[in-house]
Design goal:
The chain is mainly alpha-helical. Helices cover 46% and strands 5% of the residues.
Length: 284
């Protein structure tokens, strides 16, 4: 079983480890953002990936609040391209609201890409993220190619941007956030359950009680110890209260299945050796 859950000497140690982890997590979430690093000019910005992962969304919110860098009524620098001197045109913003212009580099960038570029970038699109685009002769052609079809990297970034801006209305965001919360609660519940199981096994104590109902004064060692655990740790306590007997499944089917699967794997590794199985009922 050690390979699945890791060694946890005592419940008190586990409480302290969880509290330390939460404190570290909160500290990372509360990292200050240096306002001087939030640059309007796209060429002068620090890539979001270079910030701590815990503050990526805070950085995005700062830039979303500012909006894309779209200077207007400027005398844009002209460069010789072919037979003519060409430059950026602010009229392009109307049809391409994601378009940004860097006065520092005299080049165009994609606001959506800066905020939500993921993994692979199509050939030619690098210009809209790292080095900037400045081939004004073919600007409209390249802008259309960059936007691409519905499944393009640009449109995926655009959808992420729109979901981020409209988080309260975004079904995708709500589902994703809900799944993250459930996964966190599941991990807390599983960890607390395994801690209590380990303690009872080491002490050779029985798990079940004669009366495990919500009105019982003694629900048995397992449930009583789990509730005590919740009193020692607020985060564990919230999950336990949310899933208390009558409302809850502190030993939910999913948790039981995971633990049973771990036992099954251990059993199959016994080979031809003899073993015994003790099967108990589960009310939920």
């Amino acid at each position: 079983m050690e390979k699945y859950f890791g060694k946890r000497p005592t419940i008190l140690d586990s409480c302290q480890e969880l509290e330390a982890h939460n404190a570290e997590e909160n500290l990372m979430e509360n990292d200050d953002i240096n306002e001087s690093e939030i640059k309007a000019d796209p060429d002068l910005r620090k890539p979001i990936a270079e910030y701590g992962v815990n503050i990526w969304d805070r950085i995005r919110r700062e830039y979303v609040a500012k909006g894309p860098c779209q200077p207007k009524d400027n005398i844009f620098q002209k460069t010789r391209q072919g037979k003519d001197n060409r430059s950026f045109r602010d009229a392009w913003y109307k049809d391409y609201d994601w378009l940004e212009y860097s006065e520092a580099k005299h080049a165009a960038y994609c606001f959506y890409y800066f905020l939500f570029k993921r993994g692979y970038v199509a050939p030619g699109d690098e210009a809209f993220t790292s080095c900037g685009f400045s081939n004004w002769k073919k600007a409209l052609e390249k802008f259309k190619a960059h936007v691409g079809d519905k499944s393009s990297a640009h449109n995926k970034a655009r959808i992420e941007y729109e979901n981020f801006v409209n988080q309260r209305q975004s079904v995708a965001y709500v589902v994703s956030r809900g799944m993250t919360t459930k996964e966190k609660e599941y991990r807390i519940r599983l960890t607390a359950t395994v801690d209590v199981v380990r303690f009872l096994l080491i002490q050779g104590l029985p798990f079940r009680g004669h009366d495990e109902s919500s009105t019982s004064l003694n629900k048995g060692n397992f449930l009583e110890l789990l509730e005590w655990y919740g009193l020692r740790n607020d985060e564990v306590g919230k999950v336990i209260l949310k899933n208390a007997p009558g409302n809850n499944q502190m030993t939910s089917p999913s948790v039981q299945k995971d633990m049973a699967n771990a036992c099954a794997v251990e059993t199959t590794e016994l080979g031809d050796r003899h073993f015994s199985i003790l099967v108990d009922e589960s009310r939920d």
